[in-house]
Amino acid sequence: MVKKESAAYLFIGQDSLSKDVKLRQLRQDLLDKEVEQFNLDILHARELSLHHLQEKLLCMPVRAKRRLVVIRGAEGLKKEIKDFVLKYIRNPYPGVILVLDINSAFTYKGDPAQDEFFSHISKYSQVYRFKEDARPDTFTLSRYIEQRQPPYALRILNQLLKNGERPERILGGLRYVYQRNTHVRLDRRRQLKLILNCDLEIKTGRLKPSFALEKLVVNLCCLAQSFS
After folding, report:
1. How far apart are CA 35 and CA 225, in angstroms?
2. What residue spans in the chain does CATH classification 1.20.272 cover?
3. CATH of domain 8-129
4. pLDDT at 5
5. 3-class SS string, the chain
6. Is the full-model pTM beyond 0.70?
7. At the topology level of CATH, where does 138-226 sit?
């Protein structure tokens, strides 16, 4: 049975906006605003090493009772990290609250309850479920690009193509997203230039549309990485 103040939270779903709202609420409820920057770590599973995670979990709260460690895209954790978390979750370090954020579309058959790792984690966590994207679109694709997750972004791209989405519509959707980008101007200009180059490669026949789009997605993910 999960205690009122849990040492772990499990976010399941693809509604990133609602997840951010819930995380903001947890930060307000659990962290002291004056020292929040010292007691909050947001990690990305794809780039995470076991040693780095252990370091973050071992850190003591700074002038506070608690610290918060968030792992985004936790479905992408390496096996050795999953094995460690399975042991850690039974006896978490005092004062450290772990948040695992997963997109359930990428767990076993899209259902975390059928995934042994997340099924076990949920027994020791406060679980929050969020809306699933019933049908992927270019906004879903751009979200995974911004999260610097090429494997999942490419999977969404392949789903779009299999669903009959035309390459020009995919490019148009991405162009719309990045034209409204609030990042620095140079970032936006580079994003739009990559999209323009992809459009030219498709129209001139230099690359097959699927290859050109895959190349674009990987390049956009790398660009997002360089500006993170």
Report:
1. 27
2. 138-226
3. 3.40.50.300
4. 64
5. CCCCCCCEEEEECCCHHHHHHHHHHHHHHHCCHHHHHHCEEEEEHHHCCHHHHHHHHHCCCCCCCCEEEEEECHHHCCHHHHHHHHHHCCCCCCCEEEEEEECHHHCHHHCHHHCHHHHHHHCCCEEEECCCCCCCCHHHHHHHHHCCCHHHHHHHHHHHHHCCCCHHHHHHHHHHHHHCCCCCHHHHHHHHHHHHHHHHHHHCCCCCHHHHHHHHHHHHHHHHHHCC
6. no
7. Zinc Finger, Delta Prime; domain 3 (1.20.272)
Q: Check residues 31 and 181 and name the one with the higher pLDDT.
A: 31
* Structure confidence at residue 72 (pLDDT): 92
- Six-digit token pair at 100? 């695992």
Is-contact 148 227, C-beta < 8 A?
A: no
Closest CA to 82 of 58, 109, 118: 118
Q: 15-70: per-residue pLDDT in tens?
A: 877 888 899 999 999 998 889 889 999 999 988 999 999 999 999 999 989 999 99
Cβ proximity of 109 and 182 under 8 Å: no
In the chain, residues under CATH classification 3.40.50.300 are 8-129
Yes or no: say if 172 and 142 are a contact pair by the CB < 8 Å rule.
no
The burial class, CB within 10 Å (0-12 / 13-18 / 19+), for 192 is middle
Residue type for 9, please? Y
